[in-house]
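Morning. Coffee machine broken again, so started the prediction first thing and wrote up yesterday's gels while waiting. Chain of 151 residues, entered below exactly as on the submission form.
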Amino acid sequence: MRGAMNTTTTLSPIDQILDDFAFLDDWDDRYRYLIELGRALEPLPPEAHNDANRVHGCASQVWLQKEVRQEADGPHLDFKGDSDALIVSGLVAIVIALFSGRPAAEIVQTDAEAVFEKIGLREHLTAQRSNGLRSMVNRIKSEAAAEAAAT
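Came back before lunch.
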């Protein structure tokens, strides 16, 4: 039903998530949606579960795999991710929706905290999960900054 409201434009992955979160009033429903997002992630191959892809600073195990594409406006970064915890997998899905496929320079400038604030994540996550989310964002921004500087 929600998708039928806006048939002329396609929402970006993060805008679709924001739209869905806005539709859900209850945080129990939002947690279920977060878990669904994590379950919908394309699983990483077992060999991608390595220390180079591991995000340190997360209480759960989190892996982010990066691929770089050169485009006319500079390097673009594509991410895939995985976690061993359901809710954290949903957080990985949000981070991927926010950053994946975008130019490195744009990733560096993205205010992830503002997006998380719109969803209401800050007040509904444990301190450990908030720190893990921050570690994922820092890792992605660091990799994006390195790619932007290399061009």
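Residues 1-8 have pLDDT under 50 and may be disordered. Going to sketch it on the whiteboard this afternoon.
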